[in-house]
């Protein structure tokens, strides 16, 4: 794994006056991201290196782990182990958080590889991360509003880092030759409206009536649909082009599928920082939810403010 410092990224964060510890944590994620990207790129080149395909074991949530889920999780952990500001690491792939340094100021929570069922078909996947302050060792269950930074690395046709530290959203592009992340765009703003929805419509009969009503409305109102099946790709498109991404509750999954701490909170933080909205539905803004469990799930409705509101008007 590459251990060099992404200098340009470091410079931008320093020039913004970010705390040294927070910069350290973000750089660790960025390093892990380029390491994960390198592993993904070689995945089909080395038949002896078993990195594509499912593992026999399942994660704490009973989901089948892909080999790369575990590799990505380990790359993140080892990057954080070298980071003095990291107090603990919690991950979708681990039942318990890993304690790192007692005097670390930050907690990192992550979905190390999002969209992992798309790996086998070389479709975009990503790493989603959330940084919380660490006033105490067991402070992982804080509302998303308290995030100090959040974002994702998107392993798509470009390797991108989208980062929000509380003053807007920046888009960095990884330069493979320089082994660095270059700032490509600042102050990303999600378009206020766009007639586009993104959800797994195959669950239509399992959604609550309000979502079905919204879909009826959208079908009659000239909407388009897009769904990659990797949250990170679907949310990234929503951020740049507008529209609404939904993963509502279903009959089988009454809290939806997505995890509050590893997926919903960081994406909600990015979306709000870009001027958009992120809601659980009747439960209100995602960022205001006080978590009660590390692996808790939540319904997700996020994207352009007007499009999220449009969905909400059809609910309950
Ligand atoms: P993960 O690969 O981290 O388990 O996440 C998969 C998630 C998310 O990326 C995507 O939005 C969703 O699963 C898709 O689920 P469905 O197949 O039910 O649509
Ligand atoms: Mn995920
Ligand atoms: Mn995952």
Detailed description of the structure:
The chain has 316 residues and is α+β, with helices and mostly antiparallel strands. The protein has 2 domains: 7-185, Fructose-1,6-Bisphosphatase, Chain A, domain 1 (2-Layer Sandwich), CATH 3.30.540; 196-315, 3-Layer(aba) Sandwich (D-Maltodextrin-Binding Protein, domain 2), CATH 3.40.190.80. The protein has 7 helices and 15 strands. The protein has helices at 7-15, 20-41, 67-81, 209-220, 231-241, 260-273, 305-314, and strands spanning 54-58, 64-66, 86-91, 98-99, 106-114, 125-133, 149-155, 159-164, 169-175, 180-185, 196-198, 224-225, 244-247, 277-279, 300-303. It has an 8-stranded mixed beta sheet, sandwiched between helices. Strands 12-11-13-15-14 form a 5-stranded mixed beta sheet, sandwiched between helices. A two-stranded antiparallel sheet has the order 1-2. Helix 2 (20-41) packs antiparallel against helix 3 and helix 4 (209-220) crosses helix 7 (305-314). The longest helix has 22 residues, at 20-41. It is globular, with a radius of gyration of 19 Å. The termini are far apart. The model has no long low-confidence stretch (mean pLDDT 94). The structure holds 2,5-anhydro-1,6-di-O-phosphono-D-glucitol and manganese (II) ion (MN) (2 copies). The site of one manganese (II) ion has 4 residues, from strand 5.
């Amino acid at each position: 794994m590459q251990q060099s410092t992404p200098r340009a990224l470091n410079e931008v964060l320093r020039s913004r006056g970010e705390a040294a510890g927070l910069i350290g944590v973000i750089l660790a994620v960025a390093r892990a991201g380029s390491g994960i990207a390198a592993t993904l790129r070689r995945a089909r080149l080395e038949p002896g290196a078993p990195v594509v395909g499912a593992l026999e074991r399942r994660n704490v949530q009973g989901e089948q782990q892909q080999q790369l889920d575990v590799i990505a999780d380990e790359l993140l952990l080892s990057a954080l182990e070298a980071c003095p500001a990291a107090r603990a690491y919690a991950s979708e792939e681990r039942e318990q958080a890993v304690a790192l340094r007692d005097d670390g100021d930050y907690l990192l929570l992550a979905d190390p590889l999002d969209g992992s069922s798309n790996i086998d078909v070389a479709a975009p996947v990503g790493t989603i991360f959330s940084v919380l302050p660490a006033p105490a060792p067991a402070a992982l269950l804080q509302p998303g509003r308290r995030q100090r930074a959040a974002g994702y690395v998107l392993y798509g046709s470009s390797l991108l880092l989208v980062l929000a530290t509380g003053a807007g959203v920046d888009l960095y592009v990884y330069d493979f030759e320089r082994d660095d992340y270059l700032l490509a765009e600042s102050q990303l703003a999600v378009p206020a409206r766009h007639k586009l929805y993104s959800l797994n419509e195959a669950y239509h009969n399992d959604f609550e009536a309000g979502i079905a009503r919204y879909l009826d409305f959208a079908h009659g109102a000239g909407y388009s649909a897009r769904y990659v099946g990797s949250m990170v790709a679907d949310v990234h498109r929503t951020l740049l082009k507008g529209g609404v991404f939904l993963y509502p509750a279903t009959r089988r999954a009454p809290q939806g599928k997505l995890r509050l701490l590893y997926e919903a909170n960081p994406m909600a933080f990015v979306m709000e920082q870009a001027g958009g909205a992120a809601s659980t539905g009747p439960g209100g803004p995602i960022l205001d939810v006080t978590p009660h469990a590390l692996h808790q799930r939540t319904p997700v409705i996020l994207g352009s403010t007007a499009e999220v509101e449009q969905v909400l008007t059809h609910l309950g």
